[in-house]
Design brief:
Length: 289
């Protein structure tokens, strides 16, 4: 009996679909396994935030955050800081010289963070530019893994709020998702940093595993993070805080004490000098509850 091409296609189609489904499930399983292999930071350990320079952590510290160019702390859970949405002050001239097209601009002028005028905003406005940024930031993440870090902290997720409407929430979400995928592919956990309004989708959609929350007591954001990440929220309050979110004068020690009273039994909370100076330096401040 002769079989037409149409009949052959009809017979082969179920087999093709079955194989495609099996392949999709296999890829899904690989992704799930990769995420499962990531070691999350311990929820019950004290953190130290050492971006101003590396130094020996105090007794009781189990988690250390250091700049991506620093070495991890021996015997600790190490988080690699990556300024993934803005330029580092020391690297601003390199970006301007080699990748000016990847810096957000308005009316021909590059946009800077108003609080950090030597930090230019990276341009996450299109898929093409996000891919180009990943070609730069991705290897930084790879190096964090190679150097022995356990996680990354990509800073300035909320850069779109300072972009004079040039950048968008969705563009930053898309780039953050790419960063999470790169981190997990390297066996690294990844922190949500900033943009507490994104916490509800931080884990489920973007892929964040924990949160580093600067001044969440001041901005009344701590519970937003805790609702998603539980005890894996690591809070930093600063010794030079002088106003709350409404502009009301405050004493920084009062802010820290209020944070400890509210959540000290649930998450790691520390009190640091704004410059995050190394221990022994003039102006160094470190307390924990």
């Amino acid at each position: 009996m002769s079989v037409t091409l149409r009949e052959k296609a009809a017979m082969l189609l179920p087999r093709i679909l079955t194989r495609l489904v099996a392949a999709a499930l296999s890829l899904s399983a690989i992704g799930t396994a990769a995420a499962a292999d990531v070691a999350f930071p311990p929820a019950d350990r004290q953190i130290d935030y050492q971006l101003g320079g590396a130094y020996k952590p105090a007794d009781g510290v189990g988690i250390v955050v250091r700049d991506r160019l620093a070495a991890p702390a021996a015997g600790k859970y190490n988080v690699c800081y990556v300024n993934a949405f803005q330029t580092q002050p020391s690297e601003a001239s390199w970006w301007l010289k080699t990748h000016p097209d990847l810096l957000a601009r308005k009316n021909g002028t590059h946009i800077v963070d108003p609080d950090w005028p030597d930090e230019y905003l990276l341009d996450t406005s299109s898929a093409k530019k996000r891919d180009a940024l990943l070609a730069i930031v991705g290897p930084w993440i790879d190096r964090c893994a190679k150097d022995g870090f356990n996680a990354i902290e990509p800073d300035n997720l909320d850069s779109w709020t300072r972009s004079q409407s040039i950048l968008s929430r969705d563009g930053n979400i898309a780039f953050a998702t790419q960063l999470a995928e790169r981190a997990h592919a390297n066996g690294l956990a990844i922190a949500q940093k900033n943009a507490s309004d994104l916490a509800p989708i931080g884990r489920s959609r973007i892929g964040f595993d924990f949160a580093v929350a600067e001044e969440c007591q001041v901005w009344s954001e701590c519970e937003d993070y805790i609702a998603i990440y539980g005890a894996r929220v690591y809070e930093i309050e600063y010794a030079d805080t002088r106003k709350d979110a409404n502009g009301k004068p405050v004493e920084p020690t009062d802010v820290y004490k209020a944070a400890c009273a509210a959540r000290g039994g649930k998450i790691s909370i520390i009190y640091r000098d704004r410059a995050l100076k190394p221990a022994g330096s003039p102006g160094y401040v470190y307390k924990a509850c």
